[in-house]
Amino acid sequence: MNRELDELLCQRYPRIFRDRHAPMTDTCMCWGFACGDGWYALIDTLCAEIQRHVETTGIGEVVATQVKEKFGCLRFYVRSGDVHISAMTWFADYLSGFICEECGAPALRTGSSWIQTRCARHGGENFPLDAPTRAESDEELLCPEWLPANKHAAWARAAAFHLPPVRTRGWRHIATALEHTIRNDLRHNELPAVVITNVTESDALRYRWAGGDTRGWLAAMVRLAEAYSARSDRQTGAAAY
User: Fold this and answer.
1) How many other β-carbons are positioned within 10 Å of the β-carbon of residue 18?
2) Confidence of residue 149 (pLDDT cuts 50, 70, 90)
3) Which domain holds residue 39?
């Protein structure tokens, strides 16, 4: 990330990035933000939500220990926090896989030997905003036969889960990322069954649902998706800096 954006994040969130210039023996933040400028808006949105949660709950300071790209996605590691913070950083990882690391446009994660998330203008592949597809194929949704019987129900819940269609073109990659993440958590992380009952699209995506967990995990992921949509162009999907 370029120096200007690096400094801007540190100015906006001095408590989160208080170790930005600490020695390498103490933190990996000494290396800065090891990712492209295109994820700036996502990191900024994530930090704003982290800071809001800290201030409203009094859980204590959350300090970033490393921010980097890995396997084409954003890794945002912190010290301290709670389940809400963990859920938001978890979803930010998934959402970054639909955002060009170079410019912030909707994109797809591609590659084999070197995995990256780039739009077509930067050597990758655009996210198909006009014809969004399911995040996984029907074959990938099938439960492997070798899994124990108690896992089959979880896989069935994941296969049946869908978000309501999003009309706003520029927000469809965000909705796809959220659907993908919830389905993964239903399948692998014991998220209880959830049904998204409604979505509105005025100033941002706004979801209502029934079910899910009582810890705030689902609520935190949805909160970040809504916050990121609020700063994303309704037509192109590019987020404002």
Assistant:
1) 15
2) confident
3) 1-127
Handedness of CA 181, 184, 189, 190 (dihedral sign): positive
Pair 186, 168 in one domain:
yes
118 in the same domain as 35: yes
* Segment 200-206 long-range contacts (CB within 8 Å, at least 24 positions apart): 201/166, 201/167, 201/168, 201/171, 203/230, 204/229, 204/230, 205/166, 205/168, 205/171, 205/174, 205/175, 205/229
Same domain, 11 and 30: yes
Same domain membership, residue 157 and residue 96: no
By DSSP bridging, strand 107-110 and strand 73-79 are unpaired
Which of the listed residues 106, 127, 148 is the one where a domain comes to its end?
127
- Structure token digits, residue 186: 């239903």
Q: Is the distance from CB of 58 to CB of 24 less than 8 angstroms?
A: no
| Calpha distance 150→55 (Å, rounded) | 40
- Average pLDDT over the chain, rounded to whole? 93
Task: State the pLDDT at residue 140.
Answer: 58
pLDDT for residue 150: 75
pLDDT tens per residue across span 61-71: 999 999 999 99
Query: Are 102 and 157 found together in one domain?
Result: no
Q: What are phi and psi of 211, to 5 degrees?
A: 90, -155
- pLDDT bucket at 73, cuts 50 / 70 / 90: very high
